[in-house]
Design brief:
Layout lengths: L1 E5 L3 H12 L10 E5 L8 H4 L11 H4 L16 H14 L6 E2 L3 E7 L5 E6 L5 E6 L1 E4 L6 E2 L12 E4 L14 E5 L3 H11 L5 E6 L13 E3 L1 H4 L18 H5 L3 H4 L3 H19 L28 H9 L9 H9 E3 L10 E4 L3 E2 L5 E2 L6 H6 L8 E4 L3 E2 L28 E2 L2 E6 L4 E2 L4 H16 L28 E2 L1 H11 L6 H8 L7 H8 L18 H6 L4 H4 L3 H35 L11 H28 L1
Parallel strand pairs: 1-2, 1-7, 2-3, 7-20, 9-17, 10-11, 10-17, 11-14, 21-22
Antiparallel strand pairs: 4-5, 5-6, 8-18, 12-13, 15-16, 19-20
Length: 637
């Protein structure tokens, strides 16, 4: 079977590697694979959209692929340059280079006559070539076309650029006023570079707030007045590998999984308590401005901003309370996270500007927020505007005139089977077209690659139930620009179950007997984060090195959990609370299920709450659209 891979970022590379090794795991002939990358290097966005002092927001433990691990002395978070080196080494280790075509742009894909698809591409020499294949793996990524907001008068600013064109601090100039639009992770990174450059003023603009999350577990100190505060820069464990997922993704009763109980635990208990314990605000760690409020403020609808740790002191300092509430003072007496020293300068916060007037001054609407009122007291005349406003996904090589008269190709958001392929077009896969609320794309792309490969060779052990998809989706409105969000742990575990790669506790116990440091295996299986390496212990993608990685390198994510905060709120409380809920529903479902079998009552009807919520949001949006349409007609009359 021939497969074309479009895109040479992490998703494309792992899909290539998985396809090339499939014949050693299944009774199939070797795949013939070609990967097409339009740039001169592999790496995708980490190559062509990187900037000065760029650092990954997901840790090395989570981001790296399951069977190609970082060295023990690597820093917890890769720089973009180091991650590119890692990807180069990955390609060399698994001998991927002979299959990679660099500086080779795919011009179009059309339905074939003698084959399923025909890929037309242009070589580095300018030659246009066609290649027939049986399947496509589209790995071109969600960061395709810069999204440019419509702000009247934007052309009156001397320098305006999208963050995709931003590379170094030099682009800010000297003694300038810099306006950054967009409060996501890129906006936070660019704000940090601006406030540490030779600029005069830095303003970060947001539309409707953000949730500030740290990259590391905040350092807590018990009785700080007696034992002293923890050094603020002490390298704590990365937050993305600090949680126990046993009862929120692995052992979850179907009734709990289909409800909002787990989401609500993290929203009403874990998020506000964790943020309050670490900084005094329930809306984000040390976040007293730019909070998310109202209907949108629910963990099931949010993407956490882990780049916040870089800028929180520059942003929060003017807004931090000078006098803490009583219960916060009580908490700070017993345990506290040290507040960093006052910064030499600050980052101002504002809503998105309504317009830029003829004199080049930015005007901001009054939104009822304190930052909107504060910015009204200043005259902001930007010299530089950086648009950290995200991207629009684009597939210029699909559904071109070359394919006229043939069945149209699906696009990423038509993928209705585990967000990977469309049920009516199973030979076209979309790998990496998702965004975890808190996690990393590369490990999820690895799981997607495995499932898509099994799909191509008809080796998925059982039919994939569409109703098993709602529990991992980030809830969004139908017209949301980002409609591909997932909860990292639940999504990865669902794909592992689909492939029979998720080991049970008894299987893990058997694997631990007689093994060196074997006692660690069941512990990290139950108490560790959702590492893909767990899913390499068994099943069709079993890897002999998985056990040693889990009990060796990844054991650091257990041994580095420190103090009360590292163990009680992040580990013990979720295990007890969610474990109790699952145990209750196990008895509840078993009792009523038994009565139903005895025909003493009706069977329990499956109720998928996230699905119902999204359907209601779609209905309400239709109602609002209909009202707007009727109002428009009335105004014309």
């Amino acid at each position: 079977m021939r497969v074309a891979i479009i895109g040479g970022g992490p998703s494309g590379l792992v899909q290539l590697k998985v396809l090339l090794e499939a014949h050693r795991r299944f009774s199939v002939a070797p795949f013939e694979v070609k990967l097409f990358e339009s740039y001169s290097k592999i790496g995708g966005i980490f190559f062509h959209h990187s900037y000065e002092d760029g650092e990954l927001v997901s840790s090395k433990y989570l981001t790296t692929f399951s069977d190609f691990r970082p060295t023990l002395d690597e820093p917890d978070f890769f720089s973009t340059e180091r991650y590119l080196e890692y990807l180069d080494a990955y390609a060399s280790h698994f001998q991927l280079w002979p299959h990679i075509n660099l500086s080779t742009a795919v011009k179009s894909v059309r339905r074939g006559v003698d084959s399923a698809h025909v890929v037309t591409y242009q070589t580095p020499d300018g030659e246009v070539v066609e290649w027939e294949c049986d399947a496509l793996a589209v790995c071109s990524g969600v960061h395709a076309v810069p999204h440019i907001p419509d702000i009247p008068g934007l052309e009156r600013v001397p320098s305006v650029m999208h963050s995709s064109a931003f590379k170094t601090r030099e682009q800010f100039g000297k003694d300038t006023t810099v306006l950054i639009l967009g409060s996501g992770e890129t906006g936070a990174d660019v704000s940090y570079l601006a406030v540490t450059a030779d600029t005069k003023k830095v303003v970060l603009c947001h539309r409707d707030g953000w949730i500030g999350a740290p990259k590391r577990v905040p350092g807590q100190k018990f009785l700080p007045w007696l034992f002293g505060a923890k050094d603020y820069d002490y390298p704590q464990l990365p937050l993305d590998v600090s949680q126990i997922t046993l009862f929120d993704s692995m052992y979850v009763h179907p009734m709990v999984r289909d409800s909002m109980l787990i989401w609500d635990f993290y929203h009403f208990v874990a998020l506000p308590a964790g943020c309050w314990l670490c900084g005094g605000s329930p809306y984000g760690v040390d976040q007293f401005v730019g909070q998310v409020f109202g209907e949108r403020f629910h963990v099931s609808k949010l993407f956490l901003n882990k780049a916040w740790q870089r800028i929180h002191n520059y942003v929060s300092y003017p807004y931090r309370p000078t006098t803490w509430p009583f219960w916060t003072r009580v908490r700070r007496f017993f345990f506290n996270t040290e507040t960093p020293p006052p910064p030499s300068r600050t980052i101002d916060i504002a809503p998105f500007p309504s317009h830029i007037s003829e004199d080049g001054v930015a005007h901001f609407p009054l939104t009822g927020r304190p930052e909107a009122e504060r910015i009204q007291t200043m005259e902001i005349k930007p010299d530089v505007i950086i648009l950290a406003t995200g991207y629009l996904t684009s597939f210029p090589f699909l559904n071109t005139p070359d394919n006229d008269g043939h069945k149209a190709y699906p696009e990423a958001f038509d993928a209705d089977v585990r967000q990977i392929w469309n049920s009516d077009d199973p030979t076209v896969g979309f790998i990496g077209f998702l965004r975890p609320g808190f996690g990393a794309i590369p490990p999820l792309a690895e799981m997607q690659s495995m499932l898509f490969t099994m799909n191509l060779i008809n080796s998925i052990p059982r039919p994939l139930n569409p109703d098993d998809e709602w529990h991992y989706r980030i809830i969004h409105k139908p017209d949301a620009r980002v409609s591909y969000g997932v909860e990292h742990d639940s999504y990865a575990y669902q794909l592992a179950k689909d492939m029979d790669c998720a080991p049970s506790f008894t299987e893990v116990l058997k694997m631990s007997f007689g093994a060196r440091k074997g006692w660690r295996l069941p512990y990290i299986w139950a108490a560790g984060a959702t590492f893909n390496t767990k899913f390499r212990l068994r099943g069709p993608w079993k890897w002999e090195g998985a056990r040693d990685v889990l009990t060796g390198e990844l054991w650091q994510t257990i041994s580095r959990r420190e103090g009360l905060f590292g163990n009680i709120p992040l580990s013990i409380v979720p295990m007890i609370y969610l474990g109790s809920i699952n145990l209750f529903y196990c008895f509840y479902g078993g009792f009523w299920g038994l009565l139903a079998k005895l025909r003493l009552c009706r069977p329990i009807q499956r109720r998928i709450e996230p699905k119902l919520i999204m359907e209601e949001m779609a209905r309400m949006q239709q109602v609002e659209a209909q009202k707007a349409k009727l109002n428009g007609k009335a105004m014309k009359k």
